[in-house]
Write a structure and sequence with these properties.
alpha/beta, Helicase, Ruva Protein, domain 3, two-stranded antiparallel ribbon, 8 helices, globular
């Protein structure tokens, strides 16, 4: 028995295809869209179409942009010899919020994950190797997540970069500021000890 009109069900099904959106949330979003005025619904649809048509990857760093080259790569004040490798475009935003990094980025658009059938050929490793082999890069910072897939990807890329005589570093991970040692797991404490610095 069909509870909803076909168009409403289709809208709900499309929302459910988005990552992190379950069936109930998809239904709520579909009902919310139905409650929008005609103009608001059109603006919402137009925003999706415009983003799809204008946003593409930067040919230099593979980050998302609506320009020929992204603003970070175009910025003459950035350190061109320092590249921070991240898994996703959202990671660039997180790094930029810290206001601590002044180099360039390289976005892989994923990590190596055999269980998800993602291999090294499915992510943007080849483009990184081309950038480094072109010269002028003195350090590559691996900033993938400290999980199994992120670690495996970082190790794989570091092995590929080793013959290029470029310094490869890894972000230090450890105990978060404001937390207590008793709640930290063994891996976190191990990382904290490895990444310790002189005071």
């Amino acid at each position: 028995m069909q509870y909803f009109p076909a168009a409403l069900q289709e809208l709900s099904d499309q929302f459910a295809r988005l990552p992190g959106i379950g069936g109930k949330t998809a239904q709520r979003l579909a009902f919310h869209v139905l409650g929008l005025s005609e103009g608001e619904a059109q603006a919402f649809a137009d925003a999706i179409i415009q983003a799809k048509q204008t946003v593409h990857t930067c040919p230099v760093c593979q980050n998302l942009t609506d320009r020929e080259i992204c603003p970070i790569c175009e910025d003459s004040m950035r350190d061109k010899g320092l590249i921070c490798v991240v898994a996703e475009p959202k990671d660039v935003i997180a790094m930029e919020r810290s206001r601590e990094f002044g180099g360039l980025y390289h976005v892989l658009h994923g990590v190596i994950s055999p269980l998800d059938h993602v291999t090294q050929d499915d992510i943007r490793i080849k483009e990184l190797l081309q950038r480094v082999s072109a010269g002028d890069v003195r350090e590559v910072i691996m900033a993938t997540n400290p999980d199994t897939e992120g670690e495996a990807t970082a190790m794989y890329i570091s092995r590929l970069l080793r013959p290029m005589e470029v310094k490869v570093t890894r972000l230090a991970y450890g105990v978060p500021v404001g937390s207590q040692l008793e709640y930290a797991d063994e891996v976190t404490l191990s990382r904290a000890l490895e990444g310790r610095q002189e005071m």
